[in-house]
Amino acid sequence: MFGNMMHRPLSIIEILRFAVEAHPKAEVVSVRTEGDIHRYTYPECYSRVGKLAHALAKLGVKTGDRVATLAWNGYRHFELYYAIAGIGGVCHTLNPRLSAEQMIYITNHAEDRVMFLDTTFVPVIEALADKFPKDMHYVVMTDRAHMPKSGLNLLCYEDLIQDEVEEYDWPELPEETAAGLCYTSGTTGNPKGALYSHRSTVLHAFTAAISISDGLKEGARVLPVVPLFHVNAWGLPYAAPLTGASLIFPGGALDGASLFDLMDREKVTSAWGVPTVWLGLQSEISSRGRNPEGFASIIVGGSAAPRSLIAAFEKSGVTVCHAWGMTEMSPVGTHGILSAHHKDTLSKEELLDLKALQGRRVFGVELKIVDENGNRLPHDGEEAGELFVRGNTIISSYFNDTEATKAAMDADGWFGTGDVASINDEGFLIIQDRAKDLIKSGGEWISSIDLENIVMAHPEVASCAVIAVAHPKWDERPLLIIVPADVVRVAKEDIDALLLDHVAKWQLPDAIEFVDELPLTATGKVSKLTLRKQFADYKLPDMK
User: In 199-304, where do the E strands start and end?
Assistant: First the structure.
């Protein structure tokens, strides 16, 4: 028997329509690439989104078409999130930190039809355009006065929407309709696409609003330092309007001084980003001797937050929430907001210990850990196993990648995260290690296997391995360990040159160490566990 209730499909554009009616005074404030500050309200945003929807339709965007964005955090990028999804298209955010090889692969794999880009990235696209789909339209996200000169046939964003009408008859789409596409390079091989739906995106916004209610509420002023191209800024473009919070977009200036000035001027209450960003802001706070005005909380994700960073912010009166998730999870999976009984019964040091963990699951996300045979392990804080997840905001498959899907999903439909973890009896997640030997630097993944495969092509390298070495700023950095093919030791400059044909500069190993042989496991594989122990106290050149 079914209940006698209406069924209305969940729709992304309805979030913005709700914000227009329920929170008309909340703001979207943006640091523009043009060099100034732009601000408007959700109703003013909605009017421009309608105009943009008409412009997209005239460019030929139809239901299911992928529209790429290559842009910083700003109001035009925010408008694209709603206009593209609203007409039934798929907003595909490109990460400018990827190598040219990865950018070319992703754009062609997604079969993007239109690309919107900030002026900053025009030179990047000029160098790659001949490798992209031939019928691509390129739209620069600026006005006529700031349009760059280019050999490409570039369209101007403001010209595109100027003469369009504000009202748009939004189609009523099935809630399973695809709405967003994000690729992850957090695995070996080619990047893999997570294709989000209207349903999963709206549910994720509900989840974030419920789970992180201190930072997301009416009157809050939220700073997404996490980029819009990094898993949709962890869902903030949807959760903030839903709750009535204002959004303060920082553009491309993410250094400590720029963030402090923006936060201070705009009275930011909550900021979201990776640990590397907060180390820079913390240094700025220390040098100025105060917090930005109104600053109350940060959400830390992307990689593990050092306990010392959490302690420093908490001491200054800023509440820290440690969160964990993945691109494949939309991305929020856990949050570190503590319960009242923790605050009433635990010491400050014990509270910090809890905050340094990855937190407890959000509503709608289930967690399990399993042994090597797939048997479930108890949540006792002791047993550790591979972490699997499932829920309405987690992928059921990768976009057009059957083999990757088979490798990621278990027989019961749970997604394998590749993390080794334990879960204690209060539900706190403790990430122990990454099963696939990935390196997480500044919140971004580096594949050790990809680096190794490229380096092995050098004639002076007999064998090699890449492991993560702890770094105080970037969390982890890659160390390359080489067994020379002969007496000649290859120069780091030669290795860098080889790698730069395939990976981004920030992914290069920080140092090379030479050994006579690599330790092997009983099955003949390189024992990275042994290497990690051997180089546990290793100091990279910039740390000595």
Answer: 221-224, 246-249, 270-273, 297-300
Backbone angle region of 364, left / alpha / beta, with phi > 0 → left and psi within -120 to 50 → alpha: left
Which domains occur in the chain, in start order?
A: 12-340 (3.40.50.12780), 365-434 (2.30.38.10), 438-543 (3.30.300.30)
Q: Out of 69, 142, 184, 319, pick the active-site residue.
A: 184
How far is residue 341's CA from residue 334's CA, in Å, rounded to a whole number? 19
Q: How many CB atoms lie within 10 A of CB 46?
A: 22
Question: What distance in Å separates the CA atoms of residue 204 and residue 180, rounded to the nearest whole number?
Answer: 13
Amino acid at 148: P
Summarised one tens digit per residue, pLDDT across range 70-107 is: 999 999 999 999 999 999 999 999 999 888 999 999 99
- The closest alpha carbon to 470, from 304, 349, 313, 358, belongs to 304
Amino acid at residue number 523: T
Rounded CA separation 26/24 (Å)? 6
Catalytic one among 27, 284, 328, 452? 328
Question: How many Cβ atoms sit within 10 Å of the Cβ of residue 533?
Answer: 11
* Contact between residue 331 and residue 361 where contact means Cβ atoms under 8 Å apart: no
Phi, psi of 458 (to 5 degrees): -75, 130
Q: Name the active-site residue from 445, 452, 474, 476.
A: 445
Over residues 420-468, the pLDDT tens digits come to: 899 999 999 998 767 667 788 988 878 887 898 899 889 999 889 999 9
184 in catalytic set = yes
- The pTM for the full model equals 0.88
